[in-house]
Amino acid sequence: MDTDLIVLNLTKLGESSVVLHALSREYGRRSFVVKVSRKTSMSLFLPLNLLEADVSESPRSTLWRAGAVTARHPLNGIRSDMHKNTMTLFMSEVLYRAVKDGAYEAGLFEWLERSILTLDSLERDFSNYHLRFLLELASAMGFSPTAEALAPFSGKYYQLLSDFVRAPFAESMIMPMNGEVRNALAEILLKYIAHHSESSLNIQSLKVLRELYG
């Protein structure tokens, strides 16, 4: 069955297969075995790529199979920009750890697809985008990240985070912050998501973002 996928992670499986960890439109978070060869362009599986594939359930394994994998959107705006590429590493790692395999959250796929295409289209003022992403992810997962709900995690950043939560999208993108403040807000939002999703969110790519926007 043809279905749309969003790449979260990739694991090598022998010489001729990979395990594609993805969010699918119909089935939620799933892992798929994909056959690859020397001719396969591994750039097809970059984090948050939007794909289409023919998927089938395997009666002998929790891993499904995916074939005839193709890209649905080139994401040129992301792949040509080092900062955006780094953000997709961070975003995909958060999703990979926060959304459990087999989980299905209505509307999560559609929200993520819009988020990716929005980042792809932004030409400037996107340094705060990963913070907005975390805030909206919490909502998409069914939590209620109001300023009051975030207060126990906020510490000295409560007022700034409160302003960020209440700001419209465009305004939140241009709120002035340095790398240290962005990193602090990201860690607060990650703690909030980890608490409510009962997940361990030790996000390694946050360090890369910190260095890039430091």
Word description of this protein:
The chain has 214 residues and is an alpha+beta fold. It folds into two domains: 2-71, Beta Barrel (OB fold (Dihydrolipoamide Acetyltransferase, E2P)); 76-212, de novo design (two linked rop proteins). Helix content is 45%, strand content 20%. It has nine helices and five strands, in the order βββββααααααααα. It has helices at 76-79, 82-98, 108-121, 129-140, 147-154, 158-166, 169-173, 179-197, 205-212, and strands spanning 2-13, 17-24, 28-35, 50-56, 64-71. Strands 1-2-3-5-4 form a five-stranded mixed barrel. α3 (108-121) packs antiparallel against α4 (129-140), α5 (147-154) runs antiparallel to α6 (158-166) and α8 packs antiparallel against α9. The longest helix is centred in the C-terminal third of the chain and has 19 residues, at 179-197. The N and C termini lie far apart (45 Å). The mean pLDDT is 92.
